[in-house]
Amino acid sequence: MRLVLRDVAGPVLTPGSDGYAAECATADPDRPLRPTAVVGATGEDDVRKAVSFAAWQGLPVAVKSAAHQVVGSADGGLLITTGRMKSLSVEAATRSVRAGAGVLWDEVVARTAPLGLAPVMGSAPGVGVVGYTLGGGLSPLLGRTHGYAADHVLRVKVVTADGELRTVTPEREPSLFWALLGGKGNFGVVTEIEFRVFPVTRFQGGGIFFAGERLAGVLEAWRRWVATVPEEMSSSLAVRPMPGLASVPRALRGSSVVHVRVGHLGAAEECDRLVAPLRAAAPVLLDTVGTRPVTAFGEIHQDADPLPPVHRTVALRALPREAADVLVRLAGPGSVRRPARLEIRALGGALDREPEVPNAVASRGVPFVVVVSAAGGGERAGALGEELAQAVGGLAPWAADRSVVNFLSAQEATDEEAVRAAYGPVRYSRLAEVKRHYDPANLFRFNHNIRPV
Questions:
Q1: How far apart, in Å, are the Cα atoms of 373 and each of 24, 156, 337, 342, 408?
Q2: Where are the alpha helices (DSSP H) in 266-309?
Q3: What pLDDT does 3 receive?
Q4: In angstroms, rounded to a whole number, what is the distance separating the alpha carbons of residues 236 and 259?
Q5: Each residue's pLDDT tens digit, 1-57
Q6: Is 89 helix (H, G, I), strand (E, B) or coil?
Q7: Which of 130, 183, 351, 417 is most enclosed, with most CB atoms within 10 A?
Q8: Pairwise CA distance, residues 351 & 224, whole Å
Q9: Which candidate, 370, 426, 372, places its Cα nearest to that of 398?
């Protein structure tokens, strides 16, 4: 294999090789990647050669950029890692960015902020730009105002299953453009993406923390509040345990808290007026909402990692009082099987509107998404996942017929029925047709697989 791929500039590693384990590592230690070989691509040519080799050998292809993204086991396949592909350019005049497949959001924001611009970035600074955008891209700051990150993509460079490097735009190969944006890694290896950015330099945001036993009252206040705020205000609510570390504020240390997160694209006075009902919902332990530079976008959610490995996701078509009561029973202080973390994100606003150029994002029109996660892993990972699935089953009466693809857990993303359900039957059928045209042998089958028709 090394001889065949000898002209690849990046490393080509096989099991037992120095660096193999590190190249295959993900954020989930319970789901290691075990490919037959891994190519650490340094550029488009490496990707093209690796895909061509895989097709010739009949090896399915997995793709990994940032270590936290969801990828199937890659057993018996070829893994292409794109973390070395760090090309990044910003055009202030056209308010656009070109980012290579290995670029992270904090790297983009560090370049755009001095120009007074910001992308539709995610909640965690270490998230990869490409993987996030291919799954839609839900921003806790710009999403309700500008829509999904995928809605602002102008051009995608991708190596498809035939080994061809294609430059895909709405005018050039429109069906592939539609499918790439929302279809995750099903249609090829994206090597570069070009997207719009927006004039944002500062924002109002942060978190309001309450004691965990106040969940019922805070959730009720938040549930009513999110229906009244303008699109410039984004928010989510999380129930999370805080470690007993000296780095954690004393008021939160070692306790379970309700963390209401807000991000507002407006004046401080307007934000204070809007947030006042939340601050009055219960005694506040800590309030960090204030004016921040756009480079501090990670301080809204304060997530060390995008999502815990063991989690389950359910999108809701409504959040009535009865559904909120289910969430309180699930995550409140009296819960018998309390998850390690529960998160509810309010969507809506521009996230509901079709973009100028349509794409395959599945969750448009879904008002809420709930993610529950469990602590632990190892041999317990499977059982924990089943427990979480049963727990969120109580939300079935309000479940939407689609979901947020980026929030699917590893177990869900490798379950073809769960993937089909996340897209809904009509969108999934159209994606499968595009897959048949560009990847009839299902070479790209490890990343949220959509089978060809």
A1: 24, 33, 11, 6, 12
A2: 268-279
A3: 41
A4: 8
A5: 544 676 899 999 999 999 999 999 887 776 778 999 999 999 999 999 999 999 999
A6: strand
A7: 183
A8: 19
A9: 370
Q: What is the DSSP letter of 267?
A: -
Q: Which helix (H) or strand (E) holds 208?
A: strand 202-211
Which residue type occupies 434?
V
**Total-model pTM:** 0.94
**DSSP string for 267-324:** -HHHHHHHHHHHHTSS-EEEE--EEEEGGGGGGTT--SSSS-SSEEEEEES---HHHH
Give the number of C-alpha atoms closer than 13 A to the C-alpha of residue 43, restricted to the C-beta side.
5
- Residue 322, CB-side half-sphere exposure with 13 Å CA sphere: 8
202-211 and 153-159 as β-strands: parallel, antiparallel, unpaired? unpaired
Contact 193, 44 (CB under 8 A): no
Kindly tell me if the per-residue pLDDT of 198 is higher than 50: yes
Which residues are CB-neighbours of 105 under 8 A, at least 6 positions away?
A: 119, 121, 122, 124, 125, 126, 127, 128, 129, 132
Q: What is the mean pLDDT of residues 84-97?
A: 97
pLDDT digits (tens, 9 = 90+) for 246-301: 888 888 988 899 999 999 999 999 999 999 999 999 999 999 999 999 999 999 99
Average pLDDT over every residue of 110-132: 96
b/e code 148-180 from CB counts within 10 Å (16+ = b): bbbbbbbbbbbbbbebebbebbeeebeebbbbb
pLDDT the model gives residue 378:
55
pLDDT more than 70, % of the chain: 91
Structure tokens at 89: 């350019």
pLDDT at 16: 92
Q: Which amino acid is at 271?
A: C
In DSSP terms, 97 is beta-bridged to 90, 195
CA–CA separation, 438 vs 122, rounded Å? 29
User: Coil, strand or helix: which one is 47?
Assistant: helix
Query: Residue 98 corresponds to which tokens in the numbers above?
Result: 């070109």
Q: Which residue has the higher pLDDT, 377 or 94?
A: 94
Tokens in use for 314? Answer: 């359910």
Joined tokens for residue 126: 């270490």
pLDDT at 191 over 90: yes
Those residues whose C-beta lies under 8 Å from the C-beta of residue 341, and which sit 6 or more positions away, are: 238, 239, 240, 241, 308, 371, 372, 373
As a whole number of angstroms, the distance between CA 332 and CA 361 comes to: 32
Please report how many Cα atoms fall inside a 13 Å half-sphere around the Cα of residue 26, on the Cβ side: 26
More confident residue, 366 or 4: 366
The answer to whether 277 and 235 have CB atoms below 8 angstroms apart is no
